[in-house]
Write a structure and sequence with these properties.
Layout (H helix, E strand, L loop, with lengths): L1 E5 L7 H9 L4 E5 L2 H7 L6 E4 L6 H7 L4 E4 L7 H11 L4 E5 L6 H13 L5 E6 L2 E13 L5 E5 L6 E5 L6 E3 L8 E5 L4 E16 H6 L4
Parallel strand pairs: 1-2, 1-5, 2-3, 3-4, 5-6
Antiparallel strand pairs: 6-7, 7-12, 8-11, 8-12, 9-10, 9-12
Length: 216
C-alpha cells in the first residue's frame, strides 16, 4: 500500500497531489502543519498526525469532523516520524514525503536522514519540485531514457557502488559524503543498473521527465 505524508515545508501543487493519487498514493497524511498547506488547496486529508503545535486554529476547526486527527505530544520524535510510524502500523509499504524541505535547513536535513532511519521499515521517497529522491541498497535496475540526468550519493567509505549504463561509470567505488559524489551523471540508454554493497545510496532524478516518459 502507498500513501503520501505532507510535512510543514514547501507545499506541492494540487496538480502533483492529484497525479500521485492517480498513481496509487490514495491516502494523504498531514504531519501537523502540513494540514495548513492542503487547506489552502481545498483538499481534505485522511489523517492529521503530530503534536499539533503548528496547525492553525481555524484549520484544525475545519478538519475536526472531516478527517481523523491524532495528537501525539511525544517530543522524542518529529511529526514526520509520527506519521511514518502510523503508516508502518497500518501496513503501508511505500511513502512519498512532500513538504520535507523549506525555509529551515535543519528540518530539511533531518527529513533526509529519516529516509535512511526508516529504510528497513518502509520505503520513503522525497519529492521536491522536480526532484525525486529514492534510497537503494544492494542491486537495482532503473528504467531510464538516454541523456537523462541522474545523481548518486553515498554516505561512508565502506559502501561500494558499481554502475552499468552511465556516462561516467562507477567502478566499485565509494561515494563518501563530503569527499566524492556522482552529481549530474547521465544515462546512456533505457536502463541503468547499480550494484550497491555494504550500505545505502541516494538516487535523485528529474520527476517531470519520469512522468513524461512513464518511468515513475
Amino acid at each position: 500500500m502507498k500513501c503520501i505524508v505532507l510535512a510543514n515545508g514547501q507545499a506541492p501543487s494540487k496538480k502533483v497531489l492529484m497525479y500521485l493519487n492517480n498513481q496509487g498514493y490514495k491516502t494523504l497524511i498531514c504531519a501537523d502543519g502540513g494540514a495548513n498547506s492542503v487547506f489552502k488547496l481545498d483538499i481534505i486529508p485522511d489523517y492529521i498526525i503530530g503534536d499539533l503545535d503548528s496547525i492553525l486554529p481555524g484549520v484544525y476547526d475545519y478538519y475536526f469532523d472531516r478527517c481523523k486527527i491524532i495528537k501525539k505530544p511525544d517530543q522524542s520524535s518529529t511529526d514526520v516520524e509520527k506519521c511514518l510510524e502510523y503508516a508502518v502500523k497500518k501496513k503501508f509499504t511505500e511513502v512519498i514525503l512532500l513538504g520535507a524541505t523549506g525555509d529551515r535547513l535543519d528540518h530539511s536535513f533531518c527529513n533526509l536522514g529519516i529516509v535512511i532511519k526508516y529504510f528497513n521499515k518502509i520505503c520513503v521517497k522525497i519529492l521536491h519540485h522536480s526532484s525525486l529522491l529514492c534510497a537503494y541498497k544492494r542491486n537495482v535496475t532503473l528504467k531510464t531514457i538516454p541523456k537523462e540526468v541522474i545523481s548518486i550519493y553515498g554516505f561512508d567509505a565502506g559502501t561500494k557502488i558499481k554502475s552499468y549504463g552511465l556516462k561516467y561509470p562507477l567502478k566499485n567505488i565509494s561515494l563518501h559524503f563530503g569527499r566524492k559524489e556522482s552529481t549530474s551523471n547521465v544515462a546512456l540508454c533505457d536502463e541503468v543498473k547499480l550494484s550497491i554493497k555494504n550500505g545505502i545510496v541516494f538516487v535523485i532524478r528529474d520527476f517531470d521527465i519520469m512522468k513524461k516518459y512513464d518511468l515513475f
